[in-house]
Design goal:
Elements lengths: L1 E6 L3 H6 L14 E7 L5 E11 L2 E6 L4 H9 L8 E4 L4 E7 L1 H5 L10 E4 L2 E9 L2 E9 L12 H10 L36 H9 L5 E8 L8 E4 L8 E8 L5 E8 L8 E3 L6 E5 L10
Antiparallel strand pairs: 1-4, 1-5, 2-3, 3-4, 6-9, 7-8, 8-9, 10-13, 10-15, 11-12, 11-14, 12-13, 14-15
Length: 292
């Protein structure tokens, strides 16, 4: 992950016009999931957004899309008093799991809360089952917590089991936010003003045009982001894509797939091709928001 920093007197108003989230109402003790869409409502990036001060906002996103995202966002600054920069080298990012969250002052029951400890910020993320998760962010010269290390693959698996997929290059512009359940996990605010793609995102929600959702699956073979998903009713046309994947501790791979809702009700699912690895649906850790 990397960090885009937005600072200046107009940092809030600038991001308010670009993201699916209400940045203007974001408090100093809160964080939010947000997306940056193109004019057709397709997500070009997703972020964990929080404020280090009222005019200093950090947006954590996948490093593989960061340079292009920073360039696109910068095109819209114009006369706004907002400075955008790649601050990835200025901050240390750590993923905390389990008891480590409470040890650093986080309250696991308050998802998307932010706790400040001197120069460090701790954002409580949605859990993976009963395992608490948090993002620790601090300037690079800040001593890191003295905690046991976990493997990156384990953190990635916990992220999958949280049911929230972040945008990476293989799924760039592949989904509107609801196709990854962002409206159900607090990633879209339908009461805020306009942003790129807002009309498409709202229409998908209010007119019942959404035909794809995100689900968690398990396979006994490796899965990769961007792979196509097939349903037994149609061996030729894919019904969705793998949005996030990681090896499971007990073997095989778990993944978040965005597929046609009809494909999740009956029949069978496979990855890569109709004869590829079988996918078994697992329960989502959160309820889906009904159409408003």
């Amino acid at each position: 992950m990397g960090v885009i920093r937005v600072s200046g007197a107009d940092a809030n108003s600038f991001l308010q016009g670009q993201l699916t989230q209400d940045v203007a109402q974001l408090g100093m003790s809160e964080a939010r999931l947000a997306a940056f869409c193109n004019a057709k409502g397709r997500m070009q990036a997703s972020f964990v957004v929080f404020k280090r001060s009222p005019d200093d906002i950090l947006m954590v996103c996948s490093r593989d899309i960061l340079p292009a995202t920073l360039k696109r966002l910068s095109m819209f600054v114009m006369r706004a008093k907002a400075k955008l920069s790649d601050a990835s080298d200025e901050f240390t990012l750590l993923g905390l799991a389990g008891d480590a969250v409470a040890s650093q002052g986080g309250d696991a029951s308050r998802v998307w809360s932010k706790t400040d400890a001197e120069a460090a910020n701790l954002v409580v993320l949605p859990p993976a089952g009963n395992t608490a998760r948090a993002l620790w962010c601090a300037p690079v010269d800040t001593p890191t917590p003295a905690l046991p290390a976990i493997e990156l693959a384990q953190w990635q698996w916990l992220s999958v089991r949280s049911g929230i997929a972040m945008i990476t290059q293989p799924i760039f512009e592949a989904f509107v936010p609801q196709m990854l359940n962002y409206e159900s996990v607090g990633g879209v605010n339908f009461k805020k003003g306009c942003y790129p793609g807002q009309e498409i995102v709202a229409r998908s929600q209010f007119r019942g045009t959404l035909k794809r959702r995100a689900y968690i699956v398990h396979a006994n073979a490796p899965l990769n982001v961007g792979q196509e998903v097939f349903h037994s009713a149609d061996a030729e046309q894919p019904c969705g894509l793998v949005a996030s994947a990681a090896p499971a501790p007990d073997g095989g791979f778990d993944a978040i797939v965005s597929i046609q809702t009809a494909a999740a009700t009956d029949g069978s699912l496979t990855a890569v091709s109709a004869s590829g690895p079988a996918l078994d649906l697992l329960p989502l850790p959160y309820p889906l928001l009904e159409d408003l």
